[in-house]
## 1
Amino acid sequence: MKNYDYDLFVLGAGSGGVRASRVASSYGAKVGICEEDKVGGTCVIRGCIPKKLLVYGAHYSDEVEDSIAYGWDIDIKSFNWETLLKNKDNEIDRLNNIYKKILSNNNVELFEGRGFFIDKHTLQIGDKKITANKILIATGGIPYLPRINGVERVITSNEAFHLKKLPKKIVINGGGYIAVEFASIFNGLGSDVTIVYRGEQILKGFDSGVRGFLANEIKKKGIKIETSKEIVSIEKSGPDNIVKISDGGKISADTVMFATGRVPNTSNLGLENIDVEVDKKGAVIVDRNHRTSVSNIYAIGDVTNIINLTPVALNEGICFADSVFGQKDRIMDYSAIPTAVFSLPNVATVGLTEAEARYKFKSIEIYESNFKGLKHTLTGRNELTFMKIVVNSESKKILGFHMVGSEAGEIIQGLAVSLKIGVTKDQLDSVLGVHPSSAEEFVTMRTKVS
Ligand code: NDP
């Protein structure tokens, strides 16, 4: 057999790439990895982690206001955006170093730079040329920007984490995860926020009950939502921007953010030199073993555009390394993946939406509840919690759990375990609640929605 520098070389040190490389190394493979930015990838450096820190920051405005009803008299002078960003950056630097240590402790050699395919076993990284028996593409995704006049004036989530000043007035284009999460962040920190979304209701793909409920809740907090409208251009007007909308309307704002989806990070990798097949969005096409059209080259995570979530990339990384280097045949299970949108309030869900369940099963039952949490009986805050259970009427198996409310992500994580192992509505009903909690509502809902 030909001698290569590495048994495995990984392109991209994000969640999936780091996990795959260290698991492969634990099986005795000689592993190298390259990264052109900080180690940690989208999630750690410019996604989930810094985003959630900003969400925590944004929630304090409500917490402080609510504390008055509980007897506190807190004198808040101001909010300092620079302090929040500095502390967030320190934490991201700490995590970047931890990720580097994870690689070195697991004997994975890190190269700084973008990997470029010369041939199917050879990569150029800066001025270095390396060879590898197997190569894993884990380069993630990058923000997508539609081509409209003035798009060079907009920011994406990448820049939102480093703004010099907190926007006074921001327009956010899009109605998905990032648009809704950043709308809540900026709203909580005091910006005037307008979402412009081309569809009828934000969060396409989520359960319809959740979508309408969240839209109402964030509107109550002052976020404006312009649905069925598109941004047609952005023009400069002094220090501000004039955002022109498809209905003829105009919004002036100091900051315009586009959260219009992400695309696979596959350009400038030299994929054309090795004939790895990509789809029309540029996503690397893989089989169920994460193998591309070239037999020694694999791909995992957002670059394959299957389900773009960190836990998915991590698990794909494990499945790949276990199967290819650990002689354990592991196939990724894409069913019942829980997910949360860290808006304020949070949205979380696992399993089928009502519409998906109606399409798939002959007969289903729906249980729904909305209520004011105990905390807000004193604060008077008009914030409601929504919960929904979708059940197969024939087998009585739970098909989906959906929630909008405080700590929805934490609550749905536990319920995801039960859904994955096939819990029935009767079994759910036999569980006692943790009292008093919001979560107990999930085990006490008895009346079907007609
Ligand atoms: P999403 O795909 O969630 O949302 C993109 C939004 O942009 C949609 O509302 C879409 O509209 C709209 N859009 C797309 N193209 C255009 C266009 N040309 N003009 C106007 N609007 C447009 O992407 P995000 O960028 O919010 O996030 C990317 C992915 O990252 C998510 O799908 C998710 O997988 C992951 N993510 C996960 C998070 C989490 O787990 N909490 C947090 C953030 C991101 P339409 O609905 O009509 O298609």
## 2
Amino acid sequence: MATVRKEWEEAQRLVVKIGSSLLADVKTGELKRDWLASLAADVAAIKADGKQVIIVSSGAIALGRKTLGLPRGALKLEDSQAAASVGQVDLAHAYEECFRSHGIVTAQVLLTLGDTEERRRYLNARSTMETLLRLGAVPVVNENDTVATSEIRYGDNDRLAARVASMMSCDCLVLLSDVQGFYTGIPGQDENAELLSEINDITPEIEGMAGDTGTELSRGGMVTKIEAAKIAVDAGTHMVIASGKVENPLALLANGGLCSWFFARTDPDASRKRWIAGALEPRGAVIVDDGAVRALKAGKSLLPAGVTAVEGTFDRGDAVVIRDSDGVELGRGLSAYSRQDAAEIIGYKSREILERLGYRGRDELIHRDDMALKKSIGNSD
Ligand code: GLU
């Protein structure tokens, strides 16, 4: 009996990506309701263990094309967008029904590439999903195919799921697919093809095994899965490819079923802090008083009350430098307010934000999760 991986056992927040062929019968386009019910039971068990689950689900196009009577085979972009907008309704309904029977609330979240790449939108999407998770709901994410044109779309949910995992600092990304894992060759065609159960490094050799980048679907979508693995492991998220062709696929995975793990070397919080500290060009600065310096050292968020001045031109979600009154850099963080709005609320209590700005924004100017302090200061990684 295979052992349960500690990466699975220790994961607190997971993304589970469901491929279209698991949810919809390829020939008839019919929804596989029994399978979805079994997945809902698995998710309920995981949640009962105190973990949080986000689902990234494909299937909108597969379901919608049947309803619209579109032909089989490749669809024109506008037809696939029409199919997605029809099928997404069925998909959301199906999740709602199957999860409700376990007392779980589902939430539809439709994202585009820009929502995960552009900082302001990224912060919005992130904070909505944080709220949903805090309230115990399961976000069911798909690409917003209706508005995602060819230049600005993911087009595949493997990479979307990896971006969501990184955006939400998840510990583990599960790609449920119609293959059992990552093979060294094409199973069925290459008699020496072997399943790799543990991948520590995504080497050029591994990438080569995924197949020709020109033919995305030639190896059961392995090219996009490797792309997803790169995003995930860089973000500190372990990724696992497992078969979803069985009922209760997550229970099987939990019990040590066949699969391929791609291991991350850092944890997601450390990766996110690194990204905030180094990868983003700061657009401005906030100067904080001594009380705020003490609060930051104690691991707290930065409240508007502790800020004495703002500099530069920044928007909500932009990175800013945090400085003390002597001009010493304490760290960096993502501002929850634009410079203009920040200037209106600094020095004031958070409960006065509504009155000052006319809307109720976040209590914190920079939330501690969105902050990377210098090592010498304290809570940085
Ligand atoms: N967003 C597409 C759909 O829901 C799926 C993309 C994919 O399967 O990778 O049908």
